[in-house]
Write a structure and sequence with these properties.
With 344 residues, the protein is an alpha/beta fold. Helices cover 33% and strands 21% of the residues. It is built from 10 helices and 14 strands. A hairpin with a 2-residue loop joins strand 3 and strand 4. Helix 6 runs parallel beside helix 8. The two termini are 29 Å apart. The structure holds S-adenosyl-L-homocysteine.
Length: 344
């Protein structure tokens, strides 16, 4: 059993089946999810014999800290090693409203977006709910500050890891655990339509971000392979339905790639396709990734693009860049760590 991914009821049942007293389940749950202690040896109100039994029967499968970098703006990037030797990164950003963590959901990514670093090393595997939780628990301990907001915008495609991500969300919002507000969670997808529909049935109060990055199939096909499976019209239909079903505003991510998707015509086409939808557009001048041909749009272009959207009744903001001096900005979570001499 993967104890860190288990709900309180599942953990209690496993303890019962192993004839461990019921109050121990509550103690262990609190050590894990309230005190963020990920080693039985440190669970000091448990007898030593029980700690040993638990370590043998229910090993805690989670990340361990391998490195930490702090940017000049206070953004922190954590490098973690997974039990099987793979690596993931997460980023902690400080805002006026609190600390936000950008969590990875997979090792590598199979979506292949042309401008994104996560895709370069290929896809390794999905993360378990416990591994995702441990990204947050270890970060909170490392920074000694409460994390109040979560964005699922690190490495990987959250909706490609649907069940694990849903369980992660239910654990992290559990009032017996870290108790993060559902409204403080953003989930970002490159546009997996069937999973967007599955998500809308759950009526969660989280914010759905959709990485659109182009107003039409011609441009989107060139930069996002997922578009050949779920073209713009199909994606936007699902998004519209999502907003109607959940009454939640969708946030469209739009990375501005100079000369590719940043013309006045693109802005007008985007505005016309989003018209009437409960949504917001987040413009992000693309972060340069080694080996990628894309350049960020100029500040003047971004300004003009924003103005056209606004003039056409679409809310738009330009995302502030954080952590760029430590390669921690959007899409830059590509691991530079070497594993057994092999690059990953
Ligand atoms: N797979 C998910 C979440 C991970 S990426 C998704 O595609 O939404 C988080 C966001 O960063 C996405 O909007 C992604 O398109 C964007 N992104 C990736 N690489 C980027 C880059 N080099 N510059 C700016 N944004 C980038």
């Amino acid at each position: 059993m993967d104890i860190l991914s288990a709900s309180f009821d599942e953990l209690s049942q496993a303890f019962r089946e192993n004839s461990i007293q019921a109050f121990r389940a509550k103690q262990v749950w609190e050590w894990l999810h309230k005190h963020l202690v990920l080693d039985y040896a440190d669970m000091l109100n448990l007898p030593k014999s029980l700690r040993e039994e638990l370590a043998e029967k229910f090993p805690i499968s989670c990340c361990s800290v391998k490195g930490k970098q702090v940017a000049s703006d206070g953004t922190v990037k954590m490098l973690y090693e997974l039990p099987d030797g793979d690596y993931v990164e997460c980023v902690i950003m400080k805002y006026k409203y609190g600390n936000s963590i950008c969590v990875s959901t997979e090792v590598g990514c199979k979506m292949g977006c042309a401008f994104c670093a996560s895709t370069i090393g290929g896809f390794k595997r999905r993360l378990t709910p416990g591994e995702m939780l441990s990204e947050i628990y270890l970060a909170q301990k490392e920074t000694c500050e409460r994390i109040s907001h979560i964005v699922l915008m690190g490495m990987g495609e959250p909706l490609d890891n649907f069940d694990n991500v849903m369980r992660f969300i239910s654990l992290v919002t559990d009032e017996k655990g870290l108790n993060i507000s559902m409204r403080n969670i953003s989930l970002s997808t490159c546009g997996l339509v069937p999973e967007i529909r599955k998500l809308m049935e759950k009526h969660l109060q989280l914010t759905l971000s959709v990485s659109l990055h182009a107003p039409n199939n011609e441009i989107r096909n060139k930069i996002m392979p997922v578009n050949s499976r779920y073209p713009v019209e199909e994606l936007l239909d699902a998004c519209r339905e999502y907003t109607l079903k959940t009454s939640r505003r969708i946030s469209f991510e739009y990375s501005m790639l100079s000369g590719v998707n940043d013309s006045d015509d693109c802005a007008r086409e985007l505005a016309s396709k989003l018209r009437g939808m409960l949504c917001h557009v987040n413009l992000i001048p693309v972060n340069e990734v080694e080996g990628s041909p894309f350049k960020p749009s100029s500040p003047e272009r971004v300004k003009k693009f924003t103005e056209i959207l606004e003039k056409n009744g679409i809310n738009a903001t330009v995302r502030r860049k954080l952590g760029s001096d430590i390669d921690a900005s959007c899409g830059q979570l590509r691991l530079k760590q070497k594993k057994k001499g092999e690059s990953i």
